[in-house]
Amino acid sequence: MRIKFKFLLLLPFLFTSIGCSKSDKITFKSGDFEFETYYNDKYFLLDNRELHEEIALASHAMALATFNGNKDYSLRGTYLKQLWKAEHFENMWLNEGFYNKPETDSIGYGIASKKIQDFTLLAIAVRGGNYDAEWASNLTIGAEGDAQGFNEASNKVVEGLIRFIDVYQITGHVKVWISGYSRAAITSNMTAGKLLNRINANNLTSKNVSCTADDIYAYCFEPPMGVQVLLEEARSDLYHGIHNFINYNDPVPLVAPYEWGFTRYGTDHYYPDRLNDIYFDESEREKIITLYHFTYGAQNFAHYSVDEWKFFDVGEEYAKENNLPRESVNPSQGRFVHAFIHELANTGIQSRENYANFVQKGVRDIMAAVMGANSKIEKIDLKNLVQIIFEYDFIKTLIMELEEDQGPQFAMDVEMLFLQIFGANKDNFEEVKNLYEENFMFFNMFAEAFKIRKDIMTQLLFRDNAMGIIIGHIPEVSYSFLSSCDSRFMGKKACKFNDGTYDVLHIEKPTSFTLIEKNIKKEVFSYKDGVMKSSHLAAEKMADGSIDIYLPRNGEYEYISDSLGLSLGVVDPLQGETIASTNLPQKGEIN
After folding, report:
1. Rounded to an integer, what distance in angstroms lies between the CA atom of residue 180 and that of residue 184?
2. In the prediction, which pLDDT does 134 show?
């Protein structure tokens, strides 16, 4: 707790020392805590094609202000209205979804407006937390088109905007500022995309207003995917005002999966990570993340434990046949979550059609029950849920012993665990039993997904790793990253966003290998006498003795190798790896 308040005292100094106007500073509430942001109307005179740290911080603040867990639902919009009032917005309107207890397919959002020079700014904040049973809609993908749950939510926001413009008689030139976190982020993303599609088709929300693609400012934090269009179209110039901020270690931005044709509109900006930024261990990023723990959940982690992801060797018997990793240095949670979603989507469930037909209703009902929407099943404390699951070592054993066509047996073996998790008793036994049977196919598919990639399952079923996965999606971590990339906090030491890509150097059965990074003038990887060492990079040694080193693309490297061969691949966070170079020399440079 001392660290939290120490940094709160430091915040005014950080901002004022870099020349921010004190009049721009605003205090607002999110959850049980207060924190500060900055706002100025001039932000919306800036080019929306560019990423602006001023708009990013103000947008994240607006997204966080929707987080309010007041038991009186009629008061849950209080923090957002307080923030907007401090920013001098008017006509503050919140939909019924903000004031009523969330249901499985509801959405909460608010809209406000203010006149700036010759245009009206319309601010849209989509509720990104405390949405209870609404979680179930995140799992509603549907059989075709855009992901059904996100599509329906964004349609409601567009309809609300049309009503707002009509009711408050908005006319003339308008600009739209929209933000959200997680579910709210993809809802904001798709809302902005739909507005831009209307602009492109000369079909605006109202005949009384004018708006162009240069007038949309959408800042979306940790958004899932929900748009079913080609990646090239989603990233086309039409959507240049949409900016997405992503932690590579967070699994949420990977669903609905790209493997089934989903993506999101606009430009993805990845926070720095050991995979994509060679200066990751040289920066002040960790200091900011450590000090910024003054929001909810901070008591659950002392630091950014994602950096301490644990790798486990599955043993020669399992690894040799499929050439799985046997050793790792600086193991990567990001590598894990991408492999996990890929295997579950491709090898386990296999297709969107299978998901819609055999999985969707069951997992929706599970999530609704967990969040307390099933009147016959008591709401589950998520901390207790994790505790119960990881007490069952036999699940790991079942996965490790899986062979061909044993998925149904695994599904049957988890029944007792399922009954315990949902508190089966004489009054609700049939309800819980039916819920289990409804999800039998999903448990079967889950087992099938990892009968080869058992290394993924050993990492998943380690309690501390599970906490790292949770932390990767916690809002204050995203806000901390945003701050560490903000020059107003960090000056010239501010970290840089990137596109999430990185290189992988494949070294076939080396005897020795040395890698130096020229900018930081350090040996960043070495292999000698069978031992891998690395100060900055993640790397894995495979069962056949080969080594994969993951290289941030902003580095400049020199290497000396004694191996059977080298090749270089490029890893895209959505599209996976493509080979860039083969038959590299035994000594050379990688730039």
Report:
1. 4
2. 86
Which one-letter amino acid corresponds to residue 163? R
pTM for the complete prediction? 0.93
Which residues make beta-bridge pairs with 178? 124, 218
The whole domain housing 108 covers 44-278
Task: Determine contact, residues 149/106, Cβ cutoff 8 Å.
Answer: no
187 lies in the same domain as 248: yes
Q: Do 424 and 510 belong together in one domain? A: no
Q: How many CB atoms lie within 10 A of CB 54?
A: 19
- 323 and 309 Cβ atoms separated by less than 8 Å: no
Q: Are 446 and 296 in contact (CB under 8 A)?
A: no
Q: 243 has which bridge partners? A: 219, 267
User: What is the spatial distance between Cα 540 and Cα 328, in angstroms, rounded to a whole number?
Assistant: 4
Phi/psi for 355 (5° steps) reads -60, -50
- Name every residue whose Cβ is closer than 8 Å to that of residue 300 and which is 6 or more positions away in sequence: 467
CA–CA gap between residue 331 and residue 319 (Å, rounded): 17
Domain end: 407, 434, 461, which one? 461
pLDDT tens-digit map of 40-80: 999 999 999 999 999 999 999 999 999 998 999 989 999 99
Give me the number of domains the chain comprises: 3
Q: Based on the number of CB atoms within 10 Å of its own CB, is 212 exposed (0-12), middle (13-18) or buried (19 or more)?
A: middle
Backbone angles phi, psi at 71, to 5 degrees: -65, -20
